């Protein structure tokens, strides 16, 4: 493991709180992003990310250094996000009619012109569509897709974070990609 | 004609970066002759590009300060004996 992180963790385990600020700085973007993609809301993402860091701090003595520290942290953040998702009521579906617009769906409100993924992705509407599509995924597919494509982690790391066999991780990524394709593949 | 399920499986193996060379060759050959699978593969690749390019949000600037303020003041320690 990275020497920087290793030293900080030792210091934290000895009671040095300031060392923890450096750990939070180092991982806050990634943990926040993970929570945002899982939950789809900035406010909830901030709460979840804060809570993840607090839990990691309180439980630092249970951290086992054979696992990457980032994987351990992502595991806490993913589990917290899943807990929060389970407490939320199910959202509207993408192809459901938008209130007050007879026969119009979310899809038909999107610009119809063709553009490359890089150009199209610039648009805010598409950003929202991508996030909505992620939110339509059942949580077991959502977590693997977020870890793979938003956090850019290897199948091995994802398997460690979620404590699942690699084969299961692969199957979930395949199904998650197929489900996303149905929402995004035609854009 | 319905294409075998393994074609879709190979597409995903390819996207995971762990397709074996024989399968990759067979997949390429199939895609050249099958517009339907070719469309499927392209829409999968496009989907991945969309997800990967999703904008990267940052937490508020006072995030670290807020976490630090919420940490318990003193870490709980297991006391041995009395």
Automatic annotation (TrEMBL), chain A:
Keywords (A to Z) from UniProt: Sigma factor, Transcription, Transcription regulation
Domain RNA polymerase sigma factor 70 region 4 type per the UniProt entry, residue ranges: 129-180
Keyword Transcription regulation: yes
GO process terms (BP): DNA-templated transcription initiation
Pfam families from the UniProt entry: Sigma70_r2, Sigma70_r4_2
InterPro entries: RNA_pol_sigma-70-like, RNA_pol_sigma-70_dom, RNA_pol_sigma-W_bacilli, RNA_pol_sigma70_r2, RNA_pol_sigma70_r4_t2, RNA_pol_sigma_r2, RNA_pol_sigma_r3/r4-like, WH-like_DNA-bd_sf
Protein name, entry field: RNA polymerase sigma factor SigW
Domain RNA polymerase sigma-70 region: 24-89
Domain of life: Bacteria
Family note: Belongs to the sigma-70 factor family. ECF subfamily.
UniProt keyword DNA-binding, yes or no: no
Any one GO molecular-function label of the UniProt entry: DNA binding
Gene3D superfamilies documented for this protein: 1.10.1740.10, Winged helix-like DNA-binding domain superfamily/Winged helix DNA-binding domain
